[in-house]
Amino acid sequence: MKALSAELAQRREASLYRTPRVLESAQGPTVRISGKTYLSFCSNDYLGLANHPKVIEALKEGTSRYGVGSGAAHLVTGHSTPHHALEEELAEFTGRQRALLFSTGYMANIGTISALVGRGDTVFEDRVNHASLLDGALLSQARLQRFPHKDIDALERHLATHHDKRKLVVTDGVFSMDGDIAPLPDLATLSRHYGAWLMVDDAHGLGVVGNHGAGSLSRHGLNSDDAPILVGTLGKAFGTFGAFVAGDEALIETLIQKARTYIYTTAIPPAIAHATRASLRLVKEEHWRRRHLEKLVKRFRDGARQLGTTLLESATPIQPLIIGEAADALSLSESLKEKGILITAIRPPTVAKGSARLRITFSANHKSGDIDRLLETLQPLL
292 with 274, same domain? Predict the structure, then answer.
């Protein structure tokens, strides 16, 4: 264990050590940590549904009907009525034939990529894709070919020189650390031209962007012919827990037969699925949440511009403020915390060296005054 202790010491010295905070409250614009209340801008609860009364009531109702644990994997006795109903509703919501629930987004991505490709195949991935997408390619034992962020020309050069049996192009819909949206129409066109499948992980897009919150593909008018594999998570805009993959009959049946992270793990609690059905209804019906988010993003970006602060190009609730060195990002995060504002410093290896940042995120439950307070607090610190 001495070697591990030495490594941990090195991480501390490099300002890369991570420590979980213990929340004493529910998710929301304000949270409580160690008895102190903070204005929080670092949650993925984009639509403010994690603590919504209707979702809470649905969870209680689901627990009364179906108990707490699912008790088994989906293919044993863990697949309950609310799981089945939620899968059907998610398929309809995303415009797909079917959907399949996974316990986490990480498991959905690893299981899907490993089930679809293997030795002799190639996976093409944007260099800033989420870790679960990269790990899925590595675990599949297919060749992993990464290309510079959103560089369509580089991807085409790679596709043109690989003649594998199967080609899989994989991208985030909304990139989790930069907040920008993938060039999905171009990716779909290239994938079709070179006989590749396109897989989109829309964890940060579903519920937030697109027609009725149907995600990044919907925003561009793309369908299952353009991107046959769609992954979504339920713990972000939907405010609950779990993940799903949506696609045609052949895709879903293949995952049922081959995705190890589906076959060999316990299903999410049925009460969670029941609660997610309630949150899905809110996503579809309460359009004001997305409109309000858009106004908050514009208010923040306009204010940051007036402060002379340069932000990455992002029209989503993810607004990265690039600082550079990990120690500087950590210092700014701590200074904000002292003033009652909570924003986590994102450091390598989550982002590239030299691009440490504050990942500022907004919720539909934030108010305009919250944005103003953030800008006023940031001004003397930048």
Answer: no
Whether 145 and 203 share a structural domain: yes
Summarised one tens digit per residue, pLDDT across range 125-154 is 999 999 999 999 999 999 999 999 999 999
Domain limits at 97? 53-285
Question: pLDDT for 177-207, tens place per residue?
Answer: 999 999 999 999 999 999 999 999 999 999 9
Catalytic residue among 83, 150, 158, 204: 204
Residues 345 and 210 in one domain: no
| Whether residue 306 sits in one domain with residue 163 | no
Average pLDDT over residues 7-31: 94
Q: What is the mean pLDDT of the chain?
A: 96
**Among the options 114, 176, 191, 216, which is catalytic?**
176
Q: For residue 7, is it within any domain?
A: no
Q: What is the 3-state secondary structure (H, E, C) of the chain?
A: CHHHHHHHHHHHHCCCCCCCCCECCCCCCEEEECCEEEEECCCCCCCCCCCCHHHHHHHHHHHHHHCCCCCCEHHHHHCCHHHHHHHHHHHHHHCCCEEEEECCHHHHHHHHHHHHCCCCCEEEEECCCCHHHHHHHHHHCCEEEEECCCCHHHHHHHHHHCCCCCEEEEEECECCCCCCECCHHHHHHHHHHCCCEEEEECCCCCCCCCHHHCCHHHHCCCCCCCCCEEEEECCCCCCCCCEEEEECHHHHHHHHHHCHHHHCCECCCHHHHHHHHHHHHHHHHCCHHHHHHHHHHHHHHHHHHHCCCCCCCCCCCEEEEEEECHHHHHHHHHHHHHCCEECCEECCCCCCCCCEEEEEECCCCCCHHHHHHHHHHHHHHC
Q: Is 167 a catalytic residue?
A: no
Q: Are residues 38 and 58 in the same domain?
A: no
Q: Minimum mean pLDDT among 176-185, 210-219, 262-271: which range?
A: 210-219
Model-level pTM?
0.95
- Residue 339 appears among annotated catalytic residues: no
Indicate whether 229 and 139 sit together in one domain.
yes
**Domain endpoint, select from 285, 310, 341:** 285
Q: Is 236 a catalytic residue?
A: yes
Q: Of 83, 236, 292, 366, which is the active-site residue?
A: 236
**Number of folded domains in the chain?**
2
